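Example 3.2
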Amino acid sequence: MKNNVLIGIVAGIGLLTVINSYMIFTDNGVDYQKTEAVTPTNNIAATPANPNMDIQSTPEVPAGPSTSIKFEEMEHDFGTIEQDTKNTKIFKFTNTGENPLIISNATGSCGCTVPNYPRNPIAPGETGEIEVVYSPGKQVNQQTKTVSITANTEPSTTVLRVKANVNPGEQTEG
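Structure, written as tokens:
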């Protein structure tokens, strides 16, 4: 009886070896060539059913050889401001590298923080400005918002901050 069990085990292993060998040496129409990885982009947008969707898409890859950037300040405090106002800050910077600075994108952390950035390359040693408009709407109390700058720098993303204490104003009873 022991010999029959042993023969069964050896036969099973042999059968598995034959099946695995067949699978390895046949491609069944599968192409095993190495291909470049595809980075998914996020094309999800806000819809009427979900207007507050806050999905971050994959950042753009910066163009051009790497350079460096230096801002005069990385953060600005507007102090106490009122609801429903527009508050503007100009962030000044210098291309401190040896190659042209190419800003490929600038995005605010929410719709209330809107950056405007130069679309043309900034030559080495030259300066530029990024305008950030913060409109708090009905936000209240202490707020901190960010602007992410994507450029051909190392690291590729630089984060600026604006802060404000939003005065709730007169509250009316309904």
